[in-house]
Amino acid sequence: MHRVCFTLRVKPDKIDEYKRVHEQVWPEMLEALTRHGWRNYSLFLRHDGLLIGYCETPDFEAAVEGMQREPINAKWQASVGHLFEALPEGAADKSMSPIEEVFHLA
Q1: Quick one: average pLDDT of 34-50?
Q2: According to the model, what pLDDT value does residue 65 have?
Q3: Does residue 104 sit within a domain?
Q4: Cα(33)–Cα(15) distance, rounded to whole angstroms?
Q5: pLDDT score recorded for residue 93
């Protein structure tokens, strides 16, 4: 199992909406994430819009690629895309870039 951390940026004026959306993630989206190996998945949001994501997965690339094949993910990304600052790859799920882990206390 690999621990993965990544960052994105939520538009500061969209923070409240981002939080509301994540209070009720669609059940089909949760099922797809689980099916593709996303475990212990958390999102942390700072007051200025810095979003930090964390998950554990056997293979992050496979987990991301699996979700990109899911129709529900395309719908989710379309519904939340306007909440993010510029996304290099056009969608949040394609713009996640893992951060190197340099220390872990087990």
Answers
A1: 98
A2: 96
A3: no
A4: 23
A5: 87
Find, among 96, 102, 89, the residue nearest to 55 by Cα. Answer: 96
Take residue 92 and report the two structure tokens written for it: 């949040």
Pairwise CA distance, residues 31 & 97, whole Å: 23
Give the span between the Cα atoms of 104 and 106, in whole angstroms: 6
pLDDT for 15-36, tens place per residue?
Answer: 999 999 999 999 999 999 999 9
In the predicted structure, residue 87 carries a pLDDT above the cut 90: no
Can you tell me the distance from the alpha carbon of 83 to that of 92, in angstroms, rounded to the nearest whole number?
A: 10
Give the range of the structural domain holding residue 50, as residue numbers without chain letter.
Answer: 2-99
Query: The domain spanning residue 60 has which CATH number?
Result: 3.30.70.100
User: Which tokens in the block code for residue 7?
Assistant: 């960052």
Percent of the chain with pLDDT over 90: 88
Q: Are 25 and 72 in contact (CB under 8 A)?
A: no
Number of domains within the chain: 1
| Residue tagged 């699996």 (tokens) | 66
Question: Is position 53 within any domain?
Answer: yes
Which amino acid is present at 30? L
- Which residues are catalytic, by number? 22
